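Lab meeting, item 3. Inverse folding demo.
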């Protein structure tokens, strides 16, 4: 695969860094998705995050020892994904965490759904795939898997990477 092309799956893992959610649950709310999860940094639980799906702010409870790091990483995420300059007024009404933490939850949920579907099939993401898109094949043998990979050199194969 061309190392300069980054698909949505790789990008979401890179931007998430060492953060993840455990116990992530979601459902439809009155104004968007309602979700809840325990936030981890590496293997350490550092807080919990909840969006009630009613259009308000997130409920964020972070271990005080990690608050500054989560804020800094949220600002870095915002800077990496938005095409605007961060000023003193950028986070006047909405915190950077309001952008970063929902991204973590959404991208992890998408990766988890794919992981569940890819237990018995070979899954890959084309370089030009839209968010959440992937393709799957049944591979009967290792030789068949290698032939699939050879025919699709620009695809990012998920098995073993989820």
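The presenter then showed the designed sequence:
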């Amino acid at each position: 695969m061309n190392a300069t092309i980054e698909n949505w799956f790789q990008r979401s893992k890179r931007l998430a860094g060492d953060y993840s959610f455990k116990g992530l649950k979601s459902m439809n709310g009155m104004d968007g998705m309602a979700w809840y999860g325990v936030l981890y940094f590496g293997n350490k639980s550092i807080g919990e995050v909840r969006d009630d799906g009613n259009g308000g702010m997130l409920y964020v409870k972070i271990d005080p020892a990690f608050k500054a790091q989560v804020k800094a990483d949220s600002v870095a995420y915002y800077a990496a994904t938005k095409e605007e300059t961060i000023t003193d007024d950028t986070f006047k009404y909405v915190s950077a965490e309001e952008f970063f933490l929902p991204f973590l939850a959404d991208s992890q949920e998408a990766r988890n759904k794919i992981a569940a579907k890819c237990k018995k099939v070979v899954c890959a993401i084309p370089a030009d795939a839209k968010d959440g898109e992937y393709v799957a094949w049944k591979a009967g043998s290792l030789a068949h898997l290698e032939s699939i990979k050879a025919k699709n050199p620009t695809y990012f194969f998920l098995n073993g990477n989820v």
